[in-house]
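Work Package 3 (structural annotation) set out to generate three-dimensional models for the target panel prioritized at the project kickoff. During this period the team completed the workflow that converts sequence records into discrete structure tokens, so that structures can be stored uniformly alongside our sequence database. As a representative example, we reproduce one entry of 633 residues exactly as it appears in the project archive.
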Amino acid sequence: MSSGAGAPGCGPGRRRLPARDVRRFSPVRTSRPGARQTPGIRNGRRLGSRKESRDGEWTGTDGSGPGRALEALVLLCSVGAALAAVAQPLVLGRTLDLLLRDGDAGRWLPLSAGLLLGELLLDSATSLFTGRCNAAWTASVRSRALRGLLRTVPDHARPHPPGDVGTRLTLNATDAGGAPAARAALAASLITPLGALVALAVVDPWVALCVLTGLPALALVLRSFARDTGATVAAYQRTQSLIASRLLEALEGTATIAAAGTADRERARVLAPLPELAAQGRHMWALHGRALGRSGVLVPSLTLAATAVGGLRLAADELSVGDLLAVGRYAQLTAGVGGAASLLGAIVRARRARHRTLELERMPAQAYGTLRLPPDGPGELELRGVRVVRDGRRVLGVDRVRVPGGSTVAVVGRGGAGKSVLAAVAGRLIDPDEGHVLLDGVRLDRLTRGALRTEVTYAFERPVLGEGTVAEAVADGARRPSGEQVRQAARAAGADGFVRRLPCGYDTPLPQAPLSGGEHQRLGLARAFAHAGRLLVMDDATSSLDTATEHRVDLALRRSVRTGTRLVVAHRPSVADRADLVLWLEEGHVRAVGAHRDLWNTADYRAVFAAGAGAETPGAEAVRRPEPEEARP
């Protein structure tokens, strides 16, 4: 087989691949109608396990943060710059007095220059460390939110549409990541007016008293700004998320939209919240402008009043010219508390954004046990009193169902009958609200993560393969199959032929592989086959395959893939016909269990397949099967 090593676009660093006992199925009893219902995931929460500091929303589970050192540097540099700014007017005033009186400022002139240069350097360092701090915190917030999303029970992630998740992980994470540095800068920004007020009181108490009378008005402006901005920012972020979700839905359905000719209507649907977003944005800017406008009036007024009082004190020979210079500058710095509005707005926006990322980060993680499966088990699956409740309604009730190891069981039923829920419960993608699922006599919720994911494998209708090479996509999983095992799994899934024709064969990066829906699905099957353990759950995993390819995949599955129990969600009669037994679900309960040919005599059972290949009969598959080689002429 050609590996495609010389094909264009194949990186030299890419890794190259080296050259039933049906009678044991116990009778099924339907669920008792009066069984207790307990909504929610029962075993998926690990309450009280978080260990947080008082500001735990900005820290990890150990109370630390990735940008703590950088945040401290931002704070130190900001405080240093603030102290230099506070010291400058006093030193400049003293320098000016000495120059006017003696003509020689002595060491005060170099000290003035040093303070100016120091403030400039500290401001530059603050900007540098702020950028690095924001980057570190943003990466941490994003990664922790993504980790929480991926480790939770899938049912907990369903209420968040992909667009909403994308907004939380991008825009909201960026806003949240800027909070620690903004918080440090805000703390330092308050040192400047407070220090200036103290210095002003030292220079002249009367001017300090004049400035002090105007500070409560500035404080009220900041308090009103923080209160009114919070609700508006939260609404703005929710509307952003809604637009992103609708846009992503439209992008996923572009073919449907084009075929239906509904592009204008879809564009209007996606952009419908835009006027609301614009109104919220204008309101935020209005609040910001109002705060800055009010402080912009108060600050010059306080400065003018302080200068007037200082001038009167100068005329009375109570102040020197240098003192008057210091008084005017200190009045400006003291009134500069109004400039904290921008930092305060950034912190309010960041806190709202952090709340949204925390919803992902704090999703309850699925708990695992400490047990392992007995060696060489056949893969016997048993469901005891299993109940799954969603929105107060029981969507699945299965009791005392035992699937013998090594058998293939097809799960059939109309839409909404609970087939995918049963498939998720059988491999512990979700935990039942009541009851237990056992594999070879061991409860799934008591297995270690490694034991569970090594022995239970899934194949889905729409597999997510990632962005690596084809070989890496097939090999990705709890086990690490060899190159030959990867190729064998691809052959079993009917994927080896088209993979060989790709530019770099198995080393072709997936984004560069022009795959159809059926080919994409076959690679998902190949990955499941490469990692097949005692239980293989196939949730509509062959829906995009034609009947002939599906039959070849089924034959290869029986002959070339590790022997184990197969639980297959089936929509075609041919799939159910090839299974050892059929588990027929109706409205979340088991209607019947038996062979497909026997159940076919029931009109309601035939109606299950009416929407699909209803014309197929149990004998049709045998007609299509190829004749043995020796029987051909």
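Residues 1-8, 12-56, 611-633 have pLDDT under 50 and may be disordered.
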